Amino acid sequence: MIINEYRIPMNCTQSEYQVAQLYATAFASKEQTGGGEGVEIVKNEPYEKGSEKGQYTYKIFRLASRVPAVVRAVAPAGALDLYEEAWNAYPYCKTVLKNGYMKDSFSIVYETLHVDESRGEIENALNISKEDLKKRNVIIIDIAHDKIPSGDYKPDEDPKLFKSEKTNRGPLTDPDWQKTVEPVMTCYKLVYIEFKWFGIQGKVEAFLAKTVHTLFTKFHRQLFCWTDKWYGMTIQDIRDLEAKTKQDLDAKRNEGEIVANNLGDL
């Protein structure tokens, strides 16, 4: 098992991020969909669990063409679908990714805490155990200056080039922008990755960790550069957008080609 904690400082407030994240998630889903594969939103509804209230989502990711070749070679057809359950009780969220074929032998579980006026300095934001702290790797993501795969680069999604007309934020050219920018908040994402498959466990877990890192970086670059698209939206605006996105995804899965880049092979 790999335990990574990603800390992602962002040039926005905690309340703004809630809307921004949901907006970016809706549009990122469209990038992953087409040609018979993609994201299917099965449930998106309010939930209550004791004193905890939030939004529950259940999604199916049909992305077989973008998993490592070594896994495709040994897995039967249809066994590579991922099932995601998420409980979004913002500012705390929990997400569980599993696979029906591997059952308890595969999981990616991550917990997120969004902290206002934080610059990534909290050492144990999610209050994990001493045992897990010993295994945890802390990774601070700089959305402006960290490298991303050349195939994922888009000038209009580069925080070093983007200037928000609505908020006057950006471009994030200063190497120390995380220390000085206002407003600021940090996403603390604790990720547990487990893949129990004899002979390839370590290799696949490392691949998954690298993929998660890239996805988090790309997603938050987009989120910042889409500021003028989501800024000023309400949660009700987002719910309306999500309903429309579900319709679009259902249609896109059955037509055209997959838009998103392949995740690569081992």
Automatic annotation (TrEMBL):
Q: Where in this chain does the record put each Phosphatidylinositol transfer protein N-terminal domain?
A: 1-247
A Gene Ontology molecular-function term?
Answer: phosphatidylcholine binding
Q: Please give the SUPFAM superfamilies that the UniProt record associates with this protein.
A: Bet v1-like (SSF55961)
Residue stretches in coiled coil: none
Residue spans crossing the bilayer: none
Record's Gene Ontology CC terms? cell periphery; cytoplasm
This protein is called: Phosphatidylinositol transfer protein N-terminal domain-containing protein
